[in-house]
Task: structure prediction
Amino acid sequence: MSKASSPVKKNTRTFEQTLWDTADKLRGTVESSEYKHVVLSLIFLKFVSDKFEARKQALVKEGQEAYVDMVEFYTMKNVFYLPEHARWNTLQKQAKQDDIAVKIDSALFSIEKLNPSLKGALPDNYFSRMGLEASKLAALIDSIRTGSVFPTTQTKKVAKLTAQNLGRRGLVNPPALHQSSVEFP
Result:
């Protein structure tokens, strides 16, 4: 069979494989007890970005382009509003920059500031304090990839785990994060 006629292999990584790959990239640089906090925070960013983009596309499709930058048109559907610098595709484009940890922290801070239900819920300067190499963070971001890699049932589980695990560290108000996360359509 020639290369031109061979079937294209799709990315069939499972949710668990993605989590394993991201944790594997942290070996030797982060205590194993910290893996979940780093990975789940990034997955949370990816999850809320996916929901934001879906809502933004729906607004455009409904002929409401004038409202795509208005917080209220997202929160009315239980979707967090994200400024441009806090969106997954923006972070992914900037992943190889030396200050990616600061950019992730800034994204989390902005999301919390614009969405009152998250007040006190997200880690504060967590990635900057971790001291991870930019290349490690870039590899983690790349592992999570563009597109909805997590099935809906899995994203709800991740949202719940994120709320529970970050809450145990005193970094979040779990009920606010959990309630806001799982109400996404």
Q: What stands out?
A: The radius of gyration is 17 Å. DSSP finds nine helices and no strands in the chain. The longest helix spans residues 35-61.
